[in-house]
Amino acid sequence: MDAIDVGIRFKREAPALAEPSDPLVLRDWFVDDLPAVGVGAEAVTAEIVERLLPLCKNEAHPQFCGFGDTGDDPAALAAGIIAMFTQQNLINQRFDAPVATFIEIAVLRWLREALGYVNPQREDIQTVWNVGGLITTGGTMSNTIAMMLARENQAPGTMQSGVEDPERFSIIVPAGVGHYSVRAACTWIGTGAHIIQVPTIGFRYDQDELRKALAEHEGRIMSVVAYAGDSRTQTIDRLADVAQIVREADPRIWLHADACWGLPMAFSERLRPRLAGIEQFDSVTVDPHKVLAIPYSLSALLVREPESLRTVSTFSDLIMQEDFAFGQVTPFVGTKSWGSLKLWAMMRSHGRAGLGQIAERRVALAGRFAELVDAHPRLVRLHDPDMAAVAFCYLPPGIEDGTGDVEAVNTFNKALHSALLADRRWFLHTFTLPDDLGRIAPGATVQALRLVSINPHLTEQHLTDLLAHLDALALDLC
Ligand SMILES: Cc1ncc(COP(=O)(O)O)c(C=O)c1O
């Protein structure tokens, strides 16, 4: 009971950013010897509260505006605690996870339906191979399994024979905005980093360039990856166009959509059209721990053809010899916790309408922030927001937008971000971004600041307060 109380107070009261500490000081405080005599559970819990929590960041704080991993949905938190106590193991069904397995199947079907995949009738679900999805530990794992599926699709039996002629396993990604996990996945699964980067316009594939790349590398492409929300600007690609272009060029290519950010749009009638075409992709990654306030960690990979998961299945006579054992279809994983209960509880507690409203509120708030950025004389917005992210630059004094003094802008924004971190009251993310819309200097790489409007406690007042805070910090830097 005390631990739950501590957890709730942490989420409500802990500051956005932890007390700043030198990593080497932290090392020397905490990397110590195991006590010869145990201190007992109560003392350990007190130590966690007193010594560790002040050194933790709190993403549930509304002034932590750089990401959206709040992990604070009440139903998900409650379910997560209960799931931990139950110690179910999704590797097997009958004795290890009798009901948990079917909760996992239910939630996977909800996700599939939201994305527009066709679900088999309930009575036709006879085995895990009729489900069409997997719960995984994160977007990186889901993308890795997607690349394995692409590999088996390109060269069936590679699971057994190993990779031959790696040149055949190239993948196409959008230049400058792709997430590193897809490239890493290809190196982990042995197909090598044969990555073809296609130029973008406005953070989406330049479709003529995509056609050209497909023609130039014909026969050697195992997958084309498109983003329903890239990692930096959360721009959604024109998924229906990408699917059509790829299918026309070569219908055997595995189409993978990374919808780590885009999933919530699927629940809103109004926003759903922005994902149009996603149901034509062979696989889709979603990341509820980023966008649905699910405590870490929880992602899912959904596949258009449920049976395609057979190509990466594992068999053993030790365990898993049963129809509904998820251990058979989940590469890299043996024992698996009941993480899906968190998502099941969250989705059930809000319902489809509530999930849609969550998405709409975030998009409206990002739109409002974009207006405030546009109205500010020294801020330049770097993209037209599709979802819950707004990336922008602060212009230093003496520099006007379009003047092309990228170095001065980048140096100033780096310094501004450092000042923000040192102050600790607000957190925005920073990264480099191709200036795809030429807002600072066409073709340049700019140092962007980014707000994410996912936190349910973030209000319009916070947005104006944040900009006032940035102005004060910027003034100090001049
Ligand atoms: C678009 C995209 N895909 C995949 C990932 C990886 O997700 P995870 O950190 O859950 O492994 C990220 C993480 O930021 C992402 O932005």
TrEMBL record:
Its cofactor is pyridoxal 5'-phosphate. GO terms for cellular component: cytoplasm. One of its GO terms (molecular function) is pyridoxal phosphate binding. Keywords: Decarboxylase, Lyase, Pyridoxal phosphate. The modification N6-(pyridoxal phosphate)lysine is found at K290. One of its GO terms (biological process) is carboxylic acid metabolic process. It holds the Pfam family Pyridoxal_deC. Belongs to the group II decarboxylase family. This is Pyridoxal-dependent decarboxylase. The lineage of its organism: Bacteria, Bacillati, Actinomycetota, Actinomycetes, Glycomycetales.
